[in-house]
Amino acid sequence: MSEAPPALDQRIQDLFSRMSDGLELVDRAMREQLESGSEIMPVIGSHVLSSGGKRLRPILVLLAAELTGYTGSRRVQLGAALELIHTATLLHDDVVDLSELRRGQPSANAIWGNRRAVLAGDFFYGRASSMIVEDGSLAILEIFSNTIRMMAEGELIQLQRSFDTDVSERQYYQVIERKSAVLLSAACEIGAVLGEVTRGEVRRVAEFGRELGIAFQVRDDVLDYEAPAETLGKPQCADLHEGKVTLPLLLTLKRCTTNEREQVGGLLKQASQIAAANPGHDLASLASELDLSPVLELVKRYRGVEDSMRRAQEHAEKASATIAAFPDSQAKSALLDLLEYSVERDH
User: Fold this and answer.
1) Range with the lowest mean pLDDT among 86-100, 171-185, 277-291?
2) What is the C-alpha separation between 346 and 330, in angstroms, rounded?
């Protein structure tokens, strides 16, 4: 009788242990990019890079390259470049969302102000661009430029639909594909390009990243409704206070009564007015001014969380199918473990 596979938590710990040398090289490559003519930039950069994070994007570059047969040094530099892009988006997101915390620690904009935080994000974009150009691959440069464009589009679409109860599922997926999934897809695609496999294989690996990214973001949106603030490092329903109508609420709004829908609309209108009247205030103080427990009760009554998780699992299954044809390997197993982790994590 064969032994049962280790539990997911143990497999993820083993994965990070196996990837530690590569991730250390990625972190070193990122910190080498902090040199600047501005004295404050290395300080801000060091603060942001030291604040933790899963380093999911460079891990995907490393594993996708390994899956397709490449284990050279280019994957380290390209993984570092993609993580710098991700870091730049976090700096800008915190300014747009008026966030005072990032992973439970003071955000860069809370310490140094919005202007310096935005410029630091621009600096990271510039450094990442230089690393991509230095790599010399036009195919990877095209992936990189399209990714940045789509991420900016996602932010604009989300802002346009803030505090709007008429957001459709199509529009919701349009946002999360651009804001979240596109960067994970790019990480996988770049890794596969390094492996010099066929175009069809590159597309399948990129699609794995896209589906993983959608599943990951849906799980993120669910956590906003069910995880305690201590776990998330931000108030519960932070997305809603910022005007983001995500899948758990979208599914609820499709099922609830007209009166209940109007109640949610009224609460969102109040949240919008509070945010407009308090520019620059931290999210915790904004959250204290409005009781969103009626929304939480509706989401629970109409199974918004449970059915969102079912959708996340469906996307995870699609992701798994995209790489099924690749030979079994340590890299493939690791990618599937990350996929499972993306829909089961609690933070």
Assistant:
1) 277-291
2) 25
Domain 8-344 sits in CATH at 1.10.600.10
Rounded to whole angstroms, the Cα distance separating 84 from 57 reads 10
Residue 145 in tokens: 């430029």
Q: Name 10's Cβ contacts closer than 8 Å, sequence gap at least 6.
A: none
pLDDT tens readout for residues 39-88: 999 999 999 998 777 899 999 999 999 999 999 999 999 999 999 999 99
| pLDDT band for position 231 (cuts 50, 70, 90) | low
All structural domains of the chain with their residue ranges:
8-344
Q: Is the dihedral of CA 155, 157, 160, 162 positive or negative?
A: negative
Predicted structure pTM score: 0.91
Q: What is the DSSP string of 287-311?
A: HTTS--HHHHHHHHHTTHHHHHHHH
Indicate the residue type of 283: L
Query: Between vectors from CA 77 to CA 75 and to CA 78, what angle results, nearest 5°?
Result: 65
Rounded to an integer, what distance in angstroms lies between the CA atom of residue 27 and that of residue 4?
35
Two tokens, residue 321: 């199918």
| 53: Cβ contacts below 8 Å, ≥ 6 apart | 103
Q: What Cα–Cα distance (Å) separates residue 315 from each residue in 223, 332, 340?
A: 17, 17, 11
Residues facing 102 on adjacent strands: 105
Hey, is 106 helix, strand or coil? strand
CB 189 within 8 A of CB 161: no
The tens digit of pLDDT for each residue in 169-194 reads 999 999 999 989 999 999 999 999 99
Average pLDDT over residues 198-215: 98
Query: Exposed (0-12), middle (13-18) or buried (19+): which is 139, by Cβ within 10 Å?
Result: exposed
State the number of CA atoms in the 13 A half-sphere of 63 facing the CB.
31
Helix, coil or strand: residue 69: coil
Q: Give the CA dihedral 103, 105, 110, 114, nearest 10 degrees.
A: -40
Residues 91, 117: contact at Cβ < 8 Å?
Answer: yes
Sign of CA dihedral 116, 177, 343, 3: negative
Rounded CA gap, 333 and 67, in Å? 10
